[in-house]
Design goal:
Length: 218
């Protein structure tokens, strides 16, 4: 698998190509007719974790990503909620992932290729939402263990019905990892560390190069 395909699947497992995007839209229309998933009752402890995460608007740090085929990459990430994210993969990877609040682009700076998708149709929209309400129908599951609290989010409006599992430290309430699971039950996990919160970002960090995106389509 090419490097850009691997990173595309990592963040957008249901949208691995423009053709699949169109096919996924048809599948979504059929899936949308199904009844909504029931909301899960949350404990006070789990809701406190969700509330804390909702209060953290800006964060940055380092990450290690594990793909469904065992591939491993890393780099630096920047998140500004709601809706904004940037992943810079460490060299020699030329990959970039940028969300500007409306769209997500996956770019290969070496090949000068860019794939653009609506943020609202990707599982990243759940991670980047303004807040997590554990009484919301998008909450698929909540698990509490001594060393980990896990919250599974899903939305039937996502193409491919992907889910994202958020894993928190129950003592510090800090986000440790998230895992995106596609319809074929393939997982891509991102572990984060050296995290800083409350940081200020130059908004150019989250700018999508729309001119480059549109130029390649000519």
């Amino acid at each position: 698998m090419s490097e850009d395909n691997a990173e595309r699947e990592a963040f957008l497992p249901a949208l691995t190509s423009r053709r699949q995007f169109v096919l996924g839209a048809a599948a979504f229309m059929a899936y949308a007719a199904l009844p909504p998933m029931p909301a899960f009752a949350a404990t006070d402890a789990a809701q406190k974790i969700a509330d804390h995460f909702s209060s953290v608007k800006n964060m940055m740090g380092e990450f290690v990503q594990f793909g469904p085929r065992g591939e491993q990459t890393g780099g630096k990430f920047f998140i500004q909620r709601p809706g904004k994210l940037r992943f810079n993969y460490e060299k020699p990877s030329p990959m970039r992932v940028i969300a500007d609040g409306k769209n997500v682009v996956i770019g290969n700076t070496k090949l000068k290729t860019w794939d653009l998708y609506p943020l609202s149709k990707t599982p990243l929209s759940l991670l980047l939402a303004e807040r997590i309400d554990l009484g919301n129908k998008m909450v698929r599951d909540v698990k509490e263990e001594a060393d980990l609290t896990t919250i599974v989010l899903g939305d039937k409006t996502l193409l491919g019905d992907s889910t994202i599992t958020l894993m928190f430290d129950p003592k510090t309430f800090e986000l440790r990892q998230w895992t995106i699971t596609d319809l074929q039950k393939k997982d891509t996990s991102v572990m984060i560390f050296n995290v800083q919160t409350g940081v200020d970002f130059d908004q150019s960090v989250f700018e999508i190069p729309y001119a480059d995106v549109h130029n390649q389509q000519r």
